[in-house]
Input
Amino acid sequence: MTPASASDKSGKVVIRNIGLMLSGDLNRPILDADTIVVHDGLISAVGRAKDCDTGQARTLIDACQTCVAPGLIDSHVHPVPGDWTPRQNQLGWIDSSMHGGVTTMVSAGEVHLPGRPRDIVGLKALAITAQRAFDNFRPGGVKVLAGAPVIEKGLTEQDFKDLAQAGVRLLGEVGLGSVKAGDEARQMVAWARQHGIQSTIHTGGPSIPGSGLIDKDVVLEADADVIGHINGGHTALPWRQVCELCEKSARAIELVHNGNEKIAIEAARAAIALRCPHRVILGTDGPAGSGAQPLGMLRMIALIASFAEIPAELVFCFATGNTARIRRLDCGLIEVGRAADFVFMDRAQHSAGSTLLQSLQLGDIPGIGMVMIDGLVRCGRSRNTPPATTIPQLLPQRQQRH
Output
């Protein structure tokens, strides 16, 4: 399929004959609807076909009774310029993740950049450059929110103001630079928040040279917006500390593929028990020592649904709507006015589950039949997932009446 430019407009798109529509919203995870209408990349209608204006579409898709869900949002990645990762010397990992249903990625710091500058001028320049570069460049169409400086000693409030004015919206993982003490981190996190920059803190044992242990006391004192990989990246804190973070903090609870799976399951269960599932978001923490994980988000959904025994339609919300709301994104939910980012799925061929949701509860990842970003089809049948039982059909362009 010919790749589309980030500046292309979708025109009117009609998606009909949807068998299951997952909303991304915990309050109503499954929608009673079978049709979506899109205008120039934004959702303009969601409902039953008889109630929607489906005429004169530039693109018409028959979902063939498969599932349509919001595109997955990977809340924790470590990109460098281009679709390349020096950690594994691998090309195309972002495009490959799109084939795993990921339509948006959020940087937790460009920490793997060879020769990453640690002086104040250099780290600010890198953050602005990364933000600008990925704003202009979308591998596979994926929206990468990059430019997340790793804070170092010596940063002042003016520096955060400068970064915000330049368009930087994120901080890299607190604790990966020289700022590791809770009180010092808290001051910088507060400066960032004051200027509209969202923060994430490393949680658990060291992951790369230069990082260190960040325990629950530092996390609580720093009070970053997101408790990054609460299940460790790779090494988790003891469960009693993780449990205390879930109970004492009101911040986002991030679970990642590149972490301790047992703690991820227990933390998801704790969020349900504490009645705060809206705090749970998912990421991969890739690329890392364990590699790039193109299917990492799908595997996290299947892991949590099957082992934590949380309904799969709710776990999809952790990977979409929850993240969109916490990260202040315009995607992640199937509702009017949101970005038309969708993943079309069905149960994998020969899964023991009789439906998509049942197969996920059994631990099988779904097959992806199509991915759409901003109303533009970015791939058909995924090259990475097992083959879907049924795939949607992109219908020939109809003759328009004038």
